[in-house]
TrEMBL record:
The lineage of its organism: Eukaryota, Metazoa, Chordata, Craniata, Vertebrata. It is an enzyme of class 6 (ligase). This is Propionyl-CoA carboxylase alpha chain, mitochondrial. Its EC number is 6.4.1.3. It catalyses: propanoyl-CoA + hydrogencarbonate + ATP = (S)-methylmalonyl-CoA + ADP + phosphate + H(+); butanoyl-CoA + hydrogencarbonate + ATP = (2S)-ethylmalonyl-CoA + ADP + phosphate + H(+). It comes from Eurystomus gularis. Residues 22-471 form the Biotin carboxylation domain. Residues 615-669 form the Lipoyl-binding domain.
Length: 669
């Protein structure tokens, strides 16, 4: 039920030949949404699954979905999901015939150990040589050059220390990109515009690389300013059959901290000639390393449509669902078939671009802090918008799941499909409005603002989209006068509905002494810095609300027990969520994706409220408070030290990303 239902794609996505034998049991050395994604296809193919998990993931969704589950260690990934000895023991214990690995595991190390102890176990993915070559950004760049693939100018060796990094950066010319050789996912990457940023970037990138990948080697290359990030999905079978396909591109330019936020397929930017040239170079590179699985070749494309090889990811990418939607292929199924030795079932001419697909990465993050700093907590209420047409949700959580500091804060991948881009974006807008996430801070407000922004709608995007559109940081949706009146009218109608409900006594035989005939309410609503007089009149199940001298008609079923409320305001339908309320009239409403805090009082209560003392705000100027939960990995000062404004005090590691905490003013620790 979570798949895009595309009738014309049944030839590809729905067909499975039960006579085509693959594996009886497959171990999934991963967690979260990608583990759940693999399990779904395995169930379709009749393959039993084994999940591994850390002790804190004992009740995770992927553990419940699998046929078997084994704990491999404590919460830190290095002691559980990356613990090769424990994983090898589980393979032996469960007699799994195949293994789908976590992208951060050293696959060559796994294959070496497998050959020593577990012969007959198949790795779902490319062979050792391809993994080593493409997993190392330095070697992959050299191979790309030899395969006549366009590459970014830079230093083709390992950077030894900060001094050498500065020297190389000066030779290449600023700005430069410092990145982990074994990295991915935006971890271990820094942009440097001068010598000081190069030294700092070298330090943090090497530490993040060591923490995330167990490999602190770095490379430096020219930073292509204002590029588009476009990927070519490659599905390859490079054994004796010699087949290789490119499955069209994905546009991944909307990013923050080098991590993708919104993806789509196809790209609005590419013409058929550029698409073909990129695809052919991607296939040439895959054949050069004898690649045999699903993988992704990433390119940067400048404004003149010149494209440069960025890296090749030897795994199933997070954003693979948009490729599946427009081609109809089940990439996990293809990976399993290729691993078993079957040839690809399709030719390049069979690969279509049917319609348009958009993916939003829904994170437990605060988008108002650097476009998304991690948030933790328990999902107290969780409801995916699967009741809407052409919506797919790939998630590894459910109501009651914990979002912890140990793992990536992704909640899900929300995908919508349409016959064209406008239809896919409209469905995404509706899906985001209907997505219920309570208990953690999330980035739905940012996602919704991105997809409705005129620049994005026109396809005018680059990797600098967020800082260019929001130079002072993301502030949420800016209400127009009409939208402000709609919000005030809706909030006031909700308040009156609740007041009327509280007057009713169900299941009591008492007869009221006098019938209440009140039909009008004078209210005062505070929104931001403004206070607005609102008059509400009831007419059956509808309300006539006067705001700013204008009357609006508000209708709804007014089911206050539902997390979603569909409200029609003067013929315009809105889906809102009321997140909280209290006896003081304070209420929080999610409207057009953004959460607004209002205070609704009767006219009399509003007049009396001026006599209430206000709580003084906490003075935090002398306190350094981490903007996110995490681990303190370094402290640069001690009690008694004098520090100046902007000086580093400590380093916080949150979800494998390191962040320098600096002093807000000069003073003594």
């Amino acid at each position: 039920s979570r798949w895009c239902l595309i009738t014309s794609h049944k030839l590809y996505s729905s067909v499975y030949d039960p006579n085509e034998k693959t594996f009886e049991k497959l171990l999934i050395a991963n967690r979260g949404e990608i583990a759940c994604r693999v399990i779904k296809t395995c169930k379709k193919m009749g393959i039993k699954t084994v999940a591994i998990h850390s002790d804190v993931d004992a009740n995770a969704v992927h553990v419940k979905m699998a046929d078997e589950a084994v704990c491999v260690g404590p919460a830190p990934t290095s002691k559980s999901y990356l613990n090769m000895d424990a994983i090898m023991e589980v393979i032996k214990k469960t007699r799994a015939q195949a293994v789908s690995l976590n992208e951060s595991i050293c696959c060559s190390c796994f294959i070496y150990r497998k050959q020593k102890s577990q012969k007959g176990v198949t790795f779902i993915g490319p062979d050792t040589h391809a993994i080593q070559a493409m997993g190392d950004k330095i070697e992959s760049k050299l191979l790309a050059k030899n395969a006549k693939v366009n590459t970014i100018p830079g230093f083709d060796g390992v950077v030894k220390d900060a001094d050498e990094a500065v020297r190389i950066a000066r030779e290449i010319g600023y700005p430069v990109m410092i990145k982990a050789s074994a990295g991915g996912g935006g971890k271990g990457m820094r942009i440097a515009w001068d010598d000081e940023e190069t030294r700092e970037g070298f330090r943090f990138s090497s530490q993040e690389a060591a923490s995330s990948f167990g490999d602190d080697r770095l490379l430096i290359e020219k930073f292509i300013d204002n590029p588009r990030h476009i990927e070519i999905q490659v599905c390859v079978l490079a054994d004796k059959h010699g087949n290789a396909l490119w499955l069209n591109e994905r546009e991944c330019s909307i990013q923050r901290r080098n991590q993708k936020v919104v993806e789509e397929a196809p790209s609005t930017f590419l013409d058929p000639e550029t698409r073909r040239a990129m695809g052919e170079q991607a296939v040439a590179l895959a054949k050069a390393v004898k690649y045999s699985s699903a993988g992704t070749v990433e390119f940067l494309v400048d404004s003149s449509k010149n494209f440069y090889f960025l890296e090749m990811n030897t795994r199933l990418q997070v954003e693979h669902p948009v490729t599946e939607c427009i081609t109809g292929l089940d990439l996990v199924q293809e990976m399993i078939r290729v691993a078993k030795g079957y040839p690809l079932r399709h030719k390049q001419a069979d690969i279509p671009i049917n319609g348009w697909a958009v993916e939003c990465r829904v994170y437990a993050e605060d988008p108002y802090k650097s476009f998304g700093l991690p948030s933790i907590g328990k999902l107290s209420q969780y409801q995916e918008p699967l009741h809407l047409p052409s919506v797919r949700v790939d998630s590894g959580v459910q109501q009651g799941s914990d979002i912890s500091i140990y793992y990536d804060p992704m909640i899900s991948k929300l995908i919508t499909y349409g016959s064209n881009r406008a239809e896919a974006l409209k469905r995404m807008e509706e899906a985001l409005d209907n997505y219920v996430i309570r208990g953690v801070t999330h980035n739905i407000s940012l996602l919704r603002e991105v997809i409705i922004h005129p620049r994005f709608v026109q396809g005018d995007i680059s990797t600098k989209f967020l800082p260019e559109v929001y130079p002072d940081g993301f502030k949420g949706h800016k209400l127009t006068d009409l939208e402000r009146r709609e919000l005030l009218a809706t909030a006031a109608s909700l308040y009156v509905t609740e007041q009327l409900r509280s007057q009713r006594f169900l299941g009591t035989p008492r007869i009221p002494i006098a019938q209440s005939k009140r039909s009008s309410w004078e209210l005062s609503v505070r929104l931001g810095d403004g206070i607005y007089p609102v008059v509400v009149s009831k007419d059956g199940s509808s309300f006539s609300v006067e705001v700013d001298g204008m009357k609006l008609n508000v209708t709804s079923e007014w089911n206050l027990a539902s997390p979603l409320l569909s409200v029609t305001i003067d013929g315009t339908r809105r889906t809102i969520q009321r997140l909280s309320r209290n006896a003081s009239g304070d209420t929080s409403i999610q409207f057009l994706g953004t959460v607004y805090k209002l205070q609704i009082l009767t006219k009399v209560a509003a007049e009396l409220s001026k006599y209430m003392p206000e709580k003084a705000a906490e003075d935090t100027s002398s306190i350094l408070r981490s903007p996110m939960p995490g681990a303190v990995v370094a402290v640069s000062v001690k009690p008694g030290d004098m520090v100046s404004e902007g000086q580093e005090i400590c380093v916080i590691e949150a979800m494998k990303m390191q962040n320098s905490m600096i002093a807000a003013k000069t003073g003594k620790v």
